[in-house]
Specification:
The complex is a heterodimer of chains A (333) and B (281). With 333 residues, chain A is mainly α. Chain A is 77% helix and 0% strand. Classes of the chains: A mainly alpha (333), B mainly alpha (281).
Chain lengths: 333, 281
């Protein structure tokens, strides 16, 4: 319990740090791009303008400390402000609209890569460590460089190749977008349309994140396989499968759960590079649009949402760890 | 860890060979490049030919020359940023871990905060604020942003290593004989964790290469320099694929992939050599 409380304190501290960075960044910018940008918003009322000025610390009547606290108050009320580019659309509703796309496509690919990667890493480590000589180790010899290569693949480049060869040349999948504008969202046809648009981006993400899981799981498994309890299980004459899956793998996967929770936390941030190449309208796509259009409220809002989710995911990972691994509980008293 | 044990590891050998190849290309760029990478006087959008092995861009540049000069820029930024990250980690990880106390507490807290900040969005948002999105950013700022985003993970690993070494007898002896803190860190702690630090360098360089290419691809670098990332930026912007200029799209990415694989293999292999649990009996 004390362990969790301490983690919670760290969560709050980090949250505060993230919010403060978010507050400080636009104010540290060289020049005054926000003021310039504000002047270009069409049909903005003086009242709305002064509200926006306040939000970005351009309100000269208020001290920096006062601005800071009114910013915090705004956040506590769940107010992320309004987009510059799509004024007067609320940032929160823009995030709400793009979130399901990101959660579905990126979330699925992340889980798929985790399951496939851990499976492959586990088999690679087990084959290498078990008797049977070089023939068995060959899988590992092949798997490690492959994993490293997948991990070094630039996601946007793979995405561009897929767009060119699979979508454009072969015409198997749509070239971009998250759905065909004319097709109704509901029903079987709509679902199929959405799925068709998600295949290539999800595939790209699975490939580029697969390698990391393979290597992580393989090394964790090799470390566990040196433990006495695995040697003892073998010495007892338990068959290979039982030792591999019920003894070694269960312990090897423990440290990787934390990584999974973090990876799931990152899901909310979308995949800027992949979403941009496929024009897939998730959070990552809008983050880059915000950057390109100098839409600071949208950019700040998205960054804040991503950070908060990641922090919460991190905390949940720590909490889950206490549940699945009693050693943490005992160790931290 | 010594050079011999690294070179007898097949993964490390392959990684080192690829790395050596790219460094050679980077150094010899002025000699081996057939044309100037910024020369735009060629016919546009040519396919591969004897005159232009990889064809020309839609702007009329020779793709092979761009690739060779791009290698020089990307390789040096990658390795330099990797080194810079290591330097930050030496202070926030090794030194702080060794001295302990308030320095360590504060440093560990900052590390933990950076660890849970989302790396990629932070990279993009920081670049956007510091460089603007006009594509005229500076390479130095790019390196700085990648360093800020990429140091935390390794710092944590190095810190726990430094703490493990802190109370070993030989360090104790050096302390009693009155050696300074930095002297102890550099001549007693670092040599005993050199394997992990070198592996860490290659990991950091891999992160830097991918981050640099990614930022440049979305126009958050300087689009007027010739690097692998900006080549892909222009290839995407000028719709190289739709014009059938597949070499323009394929080769810069392939270089990133190969160079990244070399760094990844070295990172993995040296980690393996330094960590007895991963070694083969």
């Amino acid at each position: 319990m004390r362990y969790l409380l301490r983690r919670f304190a760290v969560l709050l501290l980090t949250l505060w740090a993230a919010v403060t960075v978010n507050f400080a960044l636009p104010r540290l910018m060289p020049g005054d791009p926000v003021q310039t940008k504000l002047a270009t918003i069409p049909g903005i009322s003086p009242l709305a303008r002064s509200a926006l000025e306040k939000q970005f610390g351009l309100d000269t009547h208020q001290s920096i400390v006062g601005q800071y606290f009114s910013y915090l108050g705004q956040l506590l009320r769940g107010d992320l402000g309004r987009s510059f580019t799509y004024y007067p659309t609320k940032v929160s509703s823009m995030i709400g609209q793009s979130l399901p796309w990101t959660l579905g496509m990126v979330g699925f690919a992340t889980l798929l890569a985790f399951v496939l990667g851990c499976g492959l890493g586990m088999v690679a480590a087990w084959r290498r460590g078990s008797a049977g000589g070089n023939r068995n180790a060959r899988f590992d010899t092949f798997m490690v460089p492959l994993g490293v290569m997948f991990g070094a693949t630039p996601p946007f480049w793979l995405a561009m190749l897929l767009v060119y060869f699979v979508a454009f040349k072969l015409g198997w999948f749509p070239i971009g977008g998250s759905r065909t504008p004319g097709v109704a969202a509901g029903g079987l046809g709509g679902a199929f349309d959405v799925l068709k648009h998600a295949v290539l981006p999800a595939f790209t993400l699975t490939i580029v994140s697969l390698g990391g899981w393979v290597l992580l799981m393989r090394n964790s498994m090799l470390t566990v396989m040196n433990d006495d309890f695995v040697k003892f299980a073998r010495a007892k004459g338990l068959d290979n499968r039982t030792v591999a899956y019920r003894y070694a793998a269960r312990n090897a996967i423990l440290p990787i759960f934390t990584q999974l929770a973090l990876a799931l936390g990152v899901v909310v941030g979308g995949q800027v590079f992949i979403e941009i190449v496929f024009s897939y309208q998730g959070i990552g796509y809008w983050l880059l649009q915000a950057v390109l259009n100098e839409d600071y409220p949208l950019m700040q809002g998205i960054f804040l949402i991503i950070t908060v989710t990641l922090l919460v995911a991190n905390f949940v990972a720590d909490a889950l760890y206490v549940l699945v691994d009693p050693r943490v509980r005992v160790g931290a008293g | 860890m010594n050079v011999r044990s690294v070179l007898s590891n097949p993964r490390a050998l392959v990684g080192a060979s690829i790395l050596a190849f790219f460094i050679a290309v980077a150094v010899l760029a002025p000699v081996i490049s057939p044309y100037s990478p910024t020369d735009i006087n060629f016919a546009t959008a040519l396919g591969p030919s004897w005159k232009h092995w990889l064809g020309t861009t839609s702007g009329g540049q020779d793709i092979l020359s761009e690739l060779i000069w791009g290698t020089r820029a990307s390789v040096s930024v990658g390795l330099l940023t990797g080194a810079l990250i290591c330097l930050v980690q030496l202070v926030t990880g090794v030194f702080a871990g060794y001295v302990g106390g308030l320095t360590d507490t504060v440093s560990a807290m900052v590390t933990n905060i950076f660890l849970v900040l989302p790396a990629l969005p932070l990279l993009i948002v920081l670049s956007a604020y510091l460089q603007g999105s006009g594509g005229s950013g500076s390479t130095l700022v790019l390196i700085g942003v990648i360093t800020i985003t990429g140091w935390a993970w390794g710092a944590r690993v190095l810190r726990s290593q430094a703490i493990a070494l802190r109370d070993r007898p030989f360090v104790e002896a050096a302390r009693i004989s009155g050696e300074g803190r930095w002297h102890i860190v550099l001549s007693h702690i670092v040599p005993n964790m050199l394997g992990i630090m070198v592996a860490n360098f290659f990991g950091a360089a891999l992160f830097a290469v991918l981050a640099e290419a990614g930022l440049e691809f979305i126009g958050l670098g300087n689009i007027n320099t010739v690097t692998w990332g900006t080549m892909l930026y222009w290839a995407q912007n000028d719709e190289a694929t739709l014009m059938g200029l597949w070499t323009w799209l394929l080769v810069p990415g392939l270089c990133i992939l190969l160079f990244g694989t070399a760094l990844g293999l070295l990172n993995f292999a040296i980690d393996e050599i330094a960590n007895p649990n991963l070694r083969r009996d």
